[in-house]
Structures are given as structure tokens and as C-alpha cells.
Amino acid sequence: QYLLSKRVLEENPCGFIRRFRMANTGTSVAITRDEIERLYNTIPTTRLYDLQIKTMIILLFETGMRISELLSLKIGSIKRDFGDYILEFEQKGGAIHRVILNELALSYLGRFLEELTAIGSDLSEEKILFQTRSGRQINRKNFARLLNTLALKAGLSCEIHPHTARVSFIRQRHKENMDIYSIRKKVGHSSVRTTERYLG
Questions:
Q1: Helices of type H across the chain
Q2: Which residue did the predictor score with more confidence, 7 or 51?
Q3: Which candidate, 84, 81, 122, places its Cα nearest to that of 105?
Q4: Can you give the pTM of this predicted structure?
């Protein structure tokens, strides 16, 4: 780029080289199922906003979805498929991913929607599911700070981030002897090699 700007070269000889993509596993570590339960138990649900935060955290840890996917969920992302409730959303790269909700995730999401209905919230399909008190989309940095504050309150020994939930989900499924191809499909990785990197 420098030589091009100085007009020493007419074209970039490295222009055909594509950057090697690495999985962004960051510095996040996995936490155990007991630690996840302690985190859940730390969050009250007496107020609607607290219930929303707990629902979001449960969805992260119980589905392995990315924080960007969670924050972009809309009311219309919740669908029913052959008796199961699923979340359907767009992943990085534009692919549509479908996640089946387990009993815990479904119970909290259902309770959250009931509370929204009770206060007369707009539940049209294009409405963002999780919002700030002022009705805006939640900022991922603010959510990450809140998650870490709750982790400290729960007595967790390490700093955690939203990505910790994805790492924990993958490693927990592996510990339960789920094959790596099924894990890859659950979290929507484009390659099984990406999943392998999460397993160290």
C-alpha cells in the first residue's frame, strides 16, 4: 500500500492473497455447569428488566448463540416447528440458523413474553425482542459489563464475557459426548475446524 501511494508500483502484487480466517475465541474461558447455575441464581426476576436480563443470559448459555445474534432477535424470531419452539435468526455471513429451545430457556422466554403482553408492549414481528428501558436496542458493551458484574456477585473466580457462554456451551456438549459435527451444527460454525479450536 505504501509503494502504491508513492507510485513506485502500479498494482499491488499481494492483492490476490486472502487473509486466513481464525475463530474469534478471544480470551474467554469456559465455566462449569455449577458456576452457570450460581450465575442464574444471582439474578432476581421481580422486575421486568431483571427478568429480561436473566432471560438473555439463559439464552446465551443454553443455546451457545453469539451476543450479536441475541441482541438482534425480533419477536418474529420465535417460531414453532413440529411441536418445538425455536429461535430463527441470521448469522454472520447471512445464513439462517435455527435453535431449538430447551425447557429452561423456553420457560423464561415464555414468562418474559407474558410480562410484555401484560403491560401492553408492542409484540409485532419486526419489534426487537430485548430493549433498554427507553426502548432502544441494548448495547453489547453495557451488557458485557453487566454480565461480568453479575458473575462477580455470584462469586465466580474468573472474569466472564458474553463469549464465555458460547465457549462453555461448546465444551459442555463435548463433555456430554456429543459428536463434534453435531456441536458444529448447533452453534452454526461453517467448519468443524472452528469448533475444534473452541475445544483447545
A1: 2-5, 33-42, 48-63, 67-71, 103-118, 140-153, 162-175, 180-187, 192-198
A2: 51
A3: 84
A4: 0.83
